[in-house]
Design brief:
Elements lengths: L2 H27 L3 H16 L9 E5 L3 E4 L6 E4 L4 E6 L8 E5 L5 E5 L3 E6 L10 H10 L8 E6 L4 E8 L2 E9 L18 E2 L3 E5 L2 E7 L2 E5 L18 E3 L1 H8 L9 E4 L1
Parallel strand pairs: 8-16, 14-15
Antiparallel strand pairs: 1-4, 1-7, 2-3, 4-5, 5-6, 8-9, 9-10, 11-16, 12-13, 13-14
Helix pairs in contact: 2-3
């Protein structure tokens, strides 16, 4: 074999090994926060005999051949380019993130985000919402404090904004609004990335978006333009939380949601 051909072959083998090594290494450092909060949600449901609250899942497909391993058995998993997977624990970092995925046969494995194309959000808001009993059991079981008498829980899976009054472990649901959170390439980050969101301030108009309630780089605001029929069903925003005008106004009113109120996103 000519030296050039041998060099190319070795380089190709090294590239394959590098991909595999990167994925296996990524498994050790993949975030477990989503899994932790899901276990807590399961315990709350078991203790209160209510529905298990879940966060959003994402449909994705591999953009290259992937070699990884099963989380459960450690057996090698090989996925050709174009394989469809369900992302059950997503790390939003584009290049260095590693997401936990479920393959078509139910195997759970880790895949680096740079090898995933996030095709669609698998939100279940169109199928209905959690009951009031489930919502109150969930937020009180999470033991969420607030510096005001108000707390907001944005359900990514159900595409709902839930507003509670009371105090830690004694929250009562007072209002629920359908919403649309961040789409696949600009997701609304949940509590595993920012553990203590709060309402920072409010502005009547921000870059043309009306009734804007800020919480750390994002916010709740009136739905702009068309497509509002997707509200409560499909995430379409650029990381913010879109609601109907009357609902944006209600949240904007400081008597309803004071500045400093805790925001829980899951």
């Amino acid at each position: 074999m000519k030296r050039g051909g041998l060099s190319r072959k070795i380089a190709g083998m090294m590239a394959v090994c590098a991909v595999a090594f990167g994925l296996f290494t990524g498994q050790a450092f993949a975030k477990s926060s989503d899994a932790k909060y899901q276990k807590i949600a399961q315990r709350i449901a078991d203790a209160t005999d209510t529905e298990v609250v879940k966060t959003i899942r994402w449909g994705a497909r591999t953009t290259a051949g992937v070699v990884t391993s099963s989380v459960e058995t450690k057996a090698e998993v090989r996925l050709p380019a174009g394989s469809n997977v369900t992302v059950v624990q997503r790390d939003y970092h584009a290049q260095n993130g590693v997401s936990q995925c479920m393959t078509a046969d139910g195997t759970t494995c880790y895949i680096a985000n740079k090898f995933l194309y996030f095709a669609q959000p698998l939100a279940t808001g169109a199928q209905g919402d959690y009951s009031e009993e489930t919502k109150e059991a969930y937020v009180n079981g999470q033991s969420i404090p607030s510096t005001t008498d108000t707390m907001i829980w944005i359900s990514l899976d159900k595409q709902r904004v839930n507003v509670f009054k009371g105090y830690k472990k004694n929250w009562e649901l007072v209002n629920t609004f359908p919403c649309s959170t961040g789409k696949a390439d600009a997701p609304t980050l949940d509590i595993t990335f920012k553990k203590k969101y709060v309402v920072q301030k409010k502005a009547l108009v921000v870059n043309g978006l009306m009734y804007y309630t800020f919480f750390y780089g994002s916010g709740i605001h009136k739905w702009p333009g068309g497509g509002i029929e997707a509200i409560g069903k499909v995430p379409l925003s650029h990381s913010c939380v879109r609601v109907q005008e009357k609902n944006a106004q209600w949240i904007f009113d400081n008597n309803n949601v004071p500045v400093g109120s805790r925001v829980w996103i899951w």
